[in-house]
Write a structure and sequence with these properties.
single chain; 640 residues; alpha+beta; four-stranded antiparallel beta sheet
């Protein structure tokens, strides 16, 4: 009985063991089968639709490169606002990492349950590809794209061109949002899409929209250009057409965001189409003109005269309301106002313009260009009033020597030689002004001499100017206003200061020539050649002595360096045929070479001279100026 019992018990134990062995044997076979199946990636695994299931690593990477490579290198189309831009992924810092993508797809467990489970698994698995982005490259690309495609918000506006109104459409402002743009690019990369990737932008609305622009066109701009406006000025009729009106008319937004008209009354009044007819029926004020009487005192030669003129405000007030009217209603009257002269007879006496303070005359050979340029400079200088403490400037007063300002070509010094250049001859005016200021005793600020000496000017007491680089400037430190008279003829000019004397007398002194340098010789040809006579270079010192109560109270000295004036001979250019006429410009510009006027360009001007105080004159005295106006230094006739 005992044996039977033991056998039954052992059988019950053995049967499960035997069953386990059978299961283990079957599972072990499946496990081994799974292990030796040869694939690293589960069946049904896809990346962007590319099936890599049941493949090894190498096989999967090759297939992804083959299938996804063209899409990974294809340009990316991006829509930024209304613009579409394209860029290759590499330029955007984007790339597909197939190795990392395959690593993500490879099995991660090798236990029996996992391995055997994969043998019977049939579900598809879609994996996301591994996208790399070089952020530095991507940000730089986004910056470039944003700068190229961004646009500023633009208000709607209205312009006036050739007598017609034109509306300018408003425009939204568009700015690419960089950080969000990087995320958008990463997410859109390799995703199939028929349309460009819509990039994130910030939009700014214009202040003046299409509705307000349209209203302004209908209510003002189109009526304004519908025809001329007719004005009556001092009983005379003046018509201003749309073309002229449009040149001086704008529409600007106000604080409420509405387009309102703005008329440039100053520009309209200065427009020749308006200025000429208004000038013909109005009268400008005339300043009083002081002159010297026989006893040397100042009297009023011509009294000041009141004028009547149209002001900017009056013109604007008359024109603007007419622009929205039609027909006969586009007519109105412009009032004139009385305008007082700047300098009246009473003002002249009040300012203390009572005597001649100084005067200087320069003589020169007659030449048409010199007559024109000297005369124009004199016209611009004459009548100037310089108040105490004010600075007078040649360039500010005369302006640039251009044809538009009334100047013509003349002779100047350039690189040590005479050449033709606009405004030649005005150095005679600068020299005359310098000497008038010298003998008036006013304070010099900027002054430059010619590069070489010109015989008709006083040594060391002459001046040249160059627009934008060299000026002649002085300050009125006399304590009284100075009135400047300028007069010229074809062969001379005189500048006189009227006011109240600060000193009894101003004397000039001049030392000997030092550091004398001989000139060289040159031969030129061609139309630009100008004959030049030789003259030595040298240094010279001049002095200014201030006399008050019969005693010297101050002394200044000025040093000037002159380079040699080389001799230049002009030879005819070779003619292609015998007997051909001589080339132009090979003869002297004037009959007396070496006496031509000269200004200098920046390359040849001397540095501005400075005054040096001294107790007494150190140089050999030259002929001094006298109250009677004795001769001084080759044609200069100072008096004070």
């Amino acid at each position: 009985m005992g044996r039977v019992g033991n056998w039954t018990s052992n059988r019950r134990i053995a049967l499960p063991l035997a069953g386990g062995a059978v299961v283990l044997g079957l599972g072990g076979g499946l496990y081994v089968t799974g292990l030796v199946a040869g694939s690293d990636i589960d069946r049904g695994t896809r990346v962007l639709g590319v099936d890599i299931g049941g493949m090894s690593r190498g096989q999967a990477q090759q297939k992804l490169t083959r299938e996804l490579g063209p899409a990974a290198a294809a340009p990316v189309a991006m829509k930024i606002g209304d613009h579409v831009e394209k860029a290759v992924p590499a330029a955007l810092g984007l790339s597909l990492d197939t190795t990392a993508t395959v690593d993500r797809a490879v099995r991660t467990g090798y236990g029996p349950a996992t391995v055997i489970g994969r043998l019977f698994a049939s579900a598809d698995r879609e994996l996301e590809p591994v996208i790399r982005m070089d952020e530095q490259t991507a940000r730089a690309a986004v910056d470039r794209i944003g700068e190229a495609t961004g646009q500023q918000a633009r208000d709607g506006s209205i312009t006036f061109e050739k007598g017609a109104a034109k509306a300018v459409a408003p425009q939204q402002g568009v700015t690419l949002i960089q950080d969000r743009a990087l995320t958008t690019l990463r997410e859109a990369y390799l995703r199939p899409a028929a349309d460009p990737v819509v990039m994130p932008v910030e939009r700014t609305q214009p202040r003046i929209g299409a509705e307000e622009t349209g209203r302004a066109m209908r209510q003002f701009a189109q009526p304004a250009m519908s025809g001329p406006v007719n004005l009556t000025v001092a009983g005379q009729r003046l018509s201003i057409g749309p073309g002229v009106l449009g040149e001086h008319l704008k529409m600007r937004p106000d604080a409420q965001g509405r387009l309102v008209p703005a008329l440039d009354s100053k520009g309209l009044l200065a427009d020749p189409a308006v200025a000429r007819p208004i000038g013909a029926v109005t009268e400008s004020p005339r300043d009083a003109v002081p002159r010297l009487d026989a006893d040397g005192s100042v009297v009023i030669g011509e009294p000041g005269r009141e004028g009547r003129q149209v002001t900017e405000a009056a013109l604007g007030k008359a024109v603007l309301p007419l622009l929205t009217r039609s027909g006969a209603a586009r007519s109105g009257e412009v009032a004139t106002v009385a305008v007082q002269p700047d300098l009246t007879s009473e003002e002249t006496r009040r300012l203390g313009i009572k005597e001649k303070v100084s005067s200087f005359t320069v003589d020169f050979p007659a030449a048409p260009y010199r007559t024109t340029n000297v005369g124009r400079a004199v016209e611009l200088i004459n009548g100037s009033v310089v108040m105490p403490g004010e600075e007078w400037s040649f360039n500010r007063t005369v302006g640039e020597r251009t044809p538009e300002n009334g100047f013509v070509d003349g002779i100047m010094i350039n690189d040590g030689r005479y050449v033709k250049s606009p405004g030649g001859g005005v150095s005679a005016v600068a020299t005359t002004m310098y000497n008038a200021a010298f003998f008036a005793g006013v304070k010099p600020v900027e002054h430059g001499a010619h590069s070489f000496y010109i015989e008709r000017y006083p040594e060391g007491r002459e001046a040249t100017v160059a627009w934008g680089t060299l000026d002649l400037r002085w300050v009125n430190d006399s304590g009284h206003p100075l009135y400047i008279q300028a007069r010229s003829t074809d062969t001379s000019l005189t500048i006189t200061f009227l006011g109240t004397k600060k000193y009894d007398e101003i004397r000039a002194t001049k030392g000997p020539r030092t550091n004398v340098t001989p000139p060289a010789k040159h031969t030129d040809s061609g139309p630009t050649c100008e004959v030049q006579t030789p003259l030595e270079g040298f240094d010279v010192t001049v002095g200014r002595v201030f006399v008050q109560g019969g005693k010297e109270v101050k002394h200044e000295e000025f040093q000037t360096h002159y380079t040699p004036r080389d001799e230049v001979t002009c030879t005819p250019e070779a003619s292609p045929t015998p007997g051909a006429p001589q080339a132009p410009g090979t003869q002297p510009a004037e009959q007396t070479p070496g006496t031509q006027p000269a200004e200098q360009t920046p390359e040849t001007r001397q540095a501005p001279q400075t005054a040096r105080a001294a107790q007494a004159p150190q140089a050999t005295p030259a002929p001094s100026a006298t109250a009677a106006g004795g001769p001084l230094a080759l044609g200069g006739t100072p008096s004070h």
